[in-house]
UniProtKB/TrEMBL annotation:
Residues 133-158 have a biased composition (Basic and acidic residues). Residues 86-132 form the Ferrous iron transporter FeoA-like domain. InterPro entries: DtxR_MntR_Metal-Reg, Fe-transptr_FeoA-like, Fe_dep_repressor, Fe_dep_repressor_sf, Iron_dep_repressor, WH-like_DNA-bd_sf. It comes from Demequina litorisediminis. Residues 133-166 are annotated as: Disordered. This is Iron-dependent repressor IdeR. Residues 4-72 form the Iron dependent repressor metal binding and dimerisation domain.
Length: 166
């Protein structure tokens, strides 16, 4: 199935609303990243286009949501990005977490518990074969529990997804 140009524009506008709302909920209302998806699902259908553009302006025109997903620009464009799934990264490789699937709140809570957030730099030391999650507890490559979302890294970026993610 393919979308028409008009259908694609509507879909991207809805994704933009959703991801901007998630960003607002985290940055301004103190939600954790595992709480925002369901809330944004409700709100994205209740806000106007004007509200969305004002929200984007207030947030400083963010390019990514709290899970690392790209936020479509107002004109519907998306940045071209290339990530490697964490379960495809070999042991010993240093990576930067760039994106995390947001449909598994338990996974998001676990990642928060081990300080593995967007921007975290780590070296894969061992893996569980079934889930693709590093173990033992991942160590931040820089040893610092803090991170910078907008920093640049020379490390490969990776995508973390749960065992049921597409």
């Amino acid at each position: 199935m393919e979308l028409t140009d008009e259908g694609r524009a509507i879909a991207l506008a809805t994704v933009r609303k959703h991801r901007l709302i998630e960003t607002f909920l985290v940055e301004y209302l103190g939600y954790d990243w595992d709480e925002v998806h369901d809330e944004a699902e409700v709100l994205e259908h209740a806000v106007s286009d004007d509200f969305v553009e004002r929200l984007a302006e207030r947030l400083g025109q963010p390019t990514h949501d709290p899970h690392g997903d790209p936020i479509p620009a107002a004109d519907g464009t998306l940045p071209t990005e290339q990530h490697t799934a964490l379960d495809a990264v070999a042991e010993g490789v240093r990576v930067r977490v760039a994106r995390v699937w947001d449909d598994d709140p338990d996974l998001l809570r676990h990642l928060s518990d081990v300080a593995l957030d967007i921007g975290a730099v780590l070296t894969v030391t061992a893996r569980k074969d079934s889930a693709g999650i590093v173990e033992p507890r991942p160590r931040r490559a820089d040893g610092d529990p803090r991170y910078r979302r907008r920093g640049t890294h020379s490390d490969r970026s990776c995508l973390i997804r749960g065992p049921t993610a597409p």
